[in-house]
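The pair is quoted verbatim as follows:
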Amino acid sequence: MEKLYQGLNKQVANLSVFFTKLHHYHWYVTGPQFFALHEKFEEFYDEINELYDEVAERLLMIGGEPVSNMKQYLELSTIEEGHGKEAPMTMVKHILDDFKVLRAEFLEVLEVAQAEGDEATADLFIGSIASFDKHIWMLSATIA
């Protein structure tokens, strides 16, 4: 189970950093696409915030201890923070890249959960991967 705990904690960290990054982009996006991107970034951070809580609570349910402070998040996360006031399409590209990272890493956790026979965790990650796939498709079309 230790490998599953570690994988889940890494995703708790990723989701926390990504949530903050999405909020940053939501606040600082400018330009002709402001209204559409401002709204879309809010949709993303709402979804990520819910998932962040679900993953942390799932970790508690199976006997793990989720990381819960910024220092730990930044040490474990493979998602980078948002910096400065990026151009709108740069923000979109960064979000696309982050969803790709999450998708790949969620697949890794999924495999561990299935190997451990933890179908509830696997189910949570399967649903999340499907959502990430849609976001990746839509963001890729946006920057095409």
The mean pLDDT is 97.
